[in-house]
Specification:
With 534 residues, the chain is α/β, with parallel strands linked by helices. The chain is built from 15 helices and 24 strands. Helix 2 packs across helix 15, helix 4 packs across helix 8 and helix 6 crosses helix 8. It is globular.
Length: 534
């Protein structure tokens, strides 16, 4: 979730009955600890008024990176690789990583957003080089076969789906569905496989990074409709199938099939092209802290050059470079940073308060709100027939299910379980949904989370000791019809006076690790005209 499972090729049939084990925990859990937190939206909102103290300090650097998400950190790595080490990175939050940050309690680390990385496409040499550098890819054989550190590949059991009061292996519905449902599912998967192989002038029609795509009239037509419209036009009407596709779209884009572009929906299934035998076709890389593991590998390039809790509230070009005004939240004072070039790695809902040209363009960018909850469970009894999987999805749930954060532990597990629950707010009015996310109380969201989980675990409230709820008002870019093939992306990415440059997953239109990674590399390569991983 925030990055989603793509196990649409794995169709092993196994249905396991669920037993609630009523009476296993007759007494209520001790007083539940409830915490509500989130990104610094209050400080960020001060960009509206810009009521900051006058700068009391000047700093100089060759390059200023604004934004410490995966794109900003990758840009820091790319600069280092080409010998440009005179840079500073400013980040609004108290830790870098964007939606790849993590939390931790005494029982486990847990992701606050993105929690896994699919295996890379074989032609993605920069990403493979990074994974090898990080010790995730152990070796590359002469034929190009990648050898991964097996402890970082997701362990079995990987995924399960709760449907019709039973758990089944895998997240594609197969328990209790009709023959027609199965025929439509099989036909849909065949159609997605065809799209996965589709090329235009030796370029894949659905590619990562998306900048490789050549937008033909056919692809533009697909992008102009919603995924629901495309499904119905192609006679995919099965309710279990549509529910599955809707889950996948909400999982990767925050918006479901009623709102997300059909191109984006197909991209979910067709852009991954890891072909290294059936055994690894559906495998992903994952860690207890989620993609914070990848963030930490990148952070070493900017560890001593990063300023956190810093809000950049004004950027303008000068005759000799760029001047940025920055508010230091901890010191409650402002500083002026003078740079030759600035790499702006922040989303458009921030950039619209920094640059006039971005203000109108930002109206084309939509962001789905998200809620993530880390839940600590004591003596949790799932059922006696099958253990917790890594990814646990509830068919028909308002959320996206939950992951087991301790799934990758090698030693025998003792103590508490810690799971992460995810929910994206797929609404026609995203501003209203965002307002509701922040206005509703912690108790309200606690009830919402527990009621959703009770579909599969009626007694789960008896096992809960602690819930930490994290709110993402602008969780990710959500590609609505016409956005990916439209002009707003290209216009927003154009530099200003060859001194201010833009990079972010916003500018690819799809919020996945690979896109953020390539955005950081491409902006550096475009500025300096040299290859980073050559």
């Amino acid at each position: 979730m925030f990055n989603s499972r793509r196990q649409f090729l794995k169709l092993s049939a196994a249905a396991l009955a669920f037993s609630a084990l009523a009476g296993a925990c007759s007494s209520k859990a001790k007083q539940l600890i409830l915490q509500l937190s989130g990104a610094k939206h209050v400080l960020g909102h001060r960009l509206w008024a810009k009521n900051f103290p006058k700068p009391s300090q000047d700093l100089k650097t060759e390059i200023l990176i604004v934004g410490g998400g995966i794109t900003g950190l990758t840009a820091a790595r790319a600069l280092t690789k080409i010998g440009k080490t005179d840079f500073l990175l400013c980040e609004l939050e108290n830790q870098v990583g964007g939606n790849s940050r993590n939390g931790e309690n005494k029982h486990s680390k847990f992701p606050l957003g993105a929690h896994y990385l699919p295996l890379p496409n074989k032609d993605d040499k920069p990403l493979i080089a990074f994974l090898q550098e990080a010790g995730i890819v152990r070796d590359i054989q002469a034929d190009g076969t990648l050898i991964f550190d097996e402890t970082q590949l997701v362990f079995d059991p990987e995924e399960r789906l709760f449907i019709k009061n039973n758990w089944q292996d895998g997240i594609i519905p197969k328990y209790g569905i009709s023959p027609d449902d199965q025929r439509q599912i099989d036909r849909f998967l065949q159609e997605m496989e065809s799209f996965r192989r589709q090329k235009n002038d030796d370029t894949y029609s659905f590619a990562i990074p998306i900048t490789k795509v050549k937008w033909t009239p056919e692809l533009r037509a697909i992008d102009q409709q919603t995924m629901k419209q495309w499904c119905l036009a192609n006679e995919f009407t099965s309710d279990p199938l549509l529910e599955y596709i809707d889950y996948c779209c909400r999982d990767d884009f925050g918006l479901g099939i009623d709102f997300v572009s059909a191109y984006a929906g197909i991209h979910y299934f067709a852009a991954r092209k890891f072909d290294q035998g059936n055994e690894q076709a559906d495998t992903v890389l994952t860690w207890p802290e989620g993609n914070a593991r990848l963030k930490n590998h990148l952070l070493k390039y900017a560890a001593n050059k990063t300023l956190t809790s810093q809000l950049v509230y004004d950027i303008k070009t000068t005759e000799i470079g760029v001047e940025a005004l920055v508010f230091d939240e901890k010191a409650n004072q402002s500083k002026r940073i003078l740079a030759q070039k600035v790499l702006v790695c922040t989303p458009q809902y921030v950039n619209k308060y920094l640059f006039e040209k971005q203000r109108q363009l930002s109206t084309h960018f939509n962001y789905a709100p998200w809620l993530v909850a880390a839940i600590t469970l004591r003596d949790f009894s799932d059922n006696f027939e099958n253990a917790l999987s890594w990814d646990n999805v509830i068919h028909g749930g308002v959320g996206l299910g939950y992951i087991n954060n301790r799934h990758q532990e090698l030693q025998q597990q003792t103590g508490k379980d810690v799971i992460s629950y995810y929910r994206a707010f797929s609404k026609a009015d995203l501003a209203k949904a965002r307002k509701s996310l922040y206005q509703k109380s912690a108790d309200f969201w606690k009830s919402e989370i527990i009621n959703d989980l009770k579909i599969a675990h009626p007694n789960i409230e008896s096992f809960i000791e602690e819930i930490e709820i994290y709110r993402w008002g602008h969780g990710m870019i959500s590609p609505t019809p016409g956005f990916l093939s439209g002009n707003a992306l290209r216009e927003a990415a154009k530099p200003i006076d060859n001194k201010i440059f833009f990079a972010h997953t916003d500018l690819s239109g799809i919020s996945i690790f690979e896109e953020a990674f390539h955005q950081g590399i491409h902006v550096v390569e475009n500025i300096y005209g040299t290859s980073v991983d050559s």
